[in-house]
Amino acid sequence: MLTDRQRRFLAARRVGHLATAGRDAAPHVVPVCFAVEGQTLYISIDRKPKRVHDHLKRITNILANPAACFIVDHYEENWTRLGWVMLRGRAEILAEGSEHDRAQSLLRARYPQLEVMEIGSLPVIALRITRATDWGAI
Question: The domain that contains 116 carries what CATH number?
Answer without folding.
Answer: 2.30.110.10
